[in-house]
From TrEMBL:
Gene3D superfamilies: P-loop containing nucleotide triphosphate hydrolases (3.40.50.300)
Protein name as it appears in the record: ABC transporter ATP-binding protein
The keyword NADP appears for this protein: no
SMART domains assigned to the protein according to its UniProt record, in alphabetical order: AAA
Source superkingdom: Bacteria
UniProt organism field: Plantactinospora alkalitolerans
InterPro entries: AAA+_ATPase, ABC_transporter-like_ATP-bd, ABC_transporter-like_CS, ABC_transpr_LolD-like, MacB-like_ATP-bd, P-loop_NTPase
SUPFAM superfamilies: P-loop containing nucleoside triphosphate hydrolases (SSF52540)
Pfam families for the chain: ABC_tran
Keywords: ATP-binding, Nucleotide-binding, Transport
ABC transporter domain boundaries: 22-241
Length: 242
């Protein structure tokens, strides 16, 4: 088994009274004349699975990238463990993302010339894990995600659902505190999407990993503990008020 920290997922009532793991206030970000975020407030609590939903172009993916320190807002603040991300330089945010965050994207973004197991080892090796240990941990995570029998296959030899579960294994292998998942089932059929979300949420809850999930699909959002709705760059449901 993995040496992952088992923290347990707090109840929503307990989480609501705790200090947020991620706290964003007054986020504003424009691209040219388009205001993508318009004064957004967000709290994300340790151990919860939170879905951010809304129509295409609503600003939800931009919000994820700001929360993860990929984009810097024009105005507002993001705090992670009470450290202000928005005050860090790019090198500082990169170190934080490598050490604390994991990412899953709509199309997995697996390296096409590497096997499934080698794809999962990449973030471990970048974090300084020795190759033998990285391979061992990669195999453990492929097993947990139900794709161990495909460990030697290239991404082109995998189905869409299998490839996405490999991508989830890669994201969780470093045991991140927060997993950011941007439309992780957007390219999958209904059955594959359900399998991926079940595997993702079970693995995250077993390790106490917090999940911030972007989706336009109500069936995918139903796997979350809590839902925020974003429209026109503002949260219209589920966010803090101040």
């Amino acid at each position: 088994m993995s040496e992952a920290k088992v923290m347990g997922s707090p109840s929503l009532s307990a989480a609501g009274g705790s200090v947020p793991l991620l706290r964003a206030r007054g986020l504003r970000l424009s691209f040219g004349f388009t205001e993508a975020l318009r004064g957004i407030h967000v709290d994300v609590h340790a151990g919860e699975v939170m879905a951010i939903t809304g129509p295409s172009g609503s600003g939800k993916s931009t919000l994820l990238h700001v929360l993860a320190g990929v984009l810097v807002p024009d105005h507002g603040t993001v705090e992670y463990k009470q450290v202000r991300l928005t005050a860090l330089d790019e090198a500082g945010r990169s170190r934080l993302r490598l050490g604390e965050f994991g990412f899953v994207f709509q199309y997995g973004q697996l390296l096409p010339d590497l096997s499934a197991v080698d794809n999962v080892t990449i973030p471990l090796l970048l974090a300084g894990t020795k190759r033998r240990e990285a391979l061992r941990r990669a195999e453990v995570w492929l097993e947990r995600l139900g794709v161990a029998e495909h460990s030697g296959k290239l991404p082109a030899q995998l189905s869409g659902g299998q490839a996405q579960r490999v991508a989830v294994a890669r994201a969780l292998a470093t045991e991140p505190a927060v997993l950011f998942a941007d439309e992780p089932t957007g390219s999958l059929d209904s059955l594959a999407a359900e399998n991926v979300m079940l595997a993702l949420t079970e693995a995250a809850r077993a390790t106490g990993t917090t999940v911030v999930l972007i989706t336009h699909d109500p069936r995918t959002a139903a796997y979350a503990d809590r839902e925020l709705i974003v429209r026109d760059g503002q949260i219209t449901f589920g966010g803090p008020t101040g």
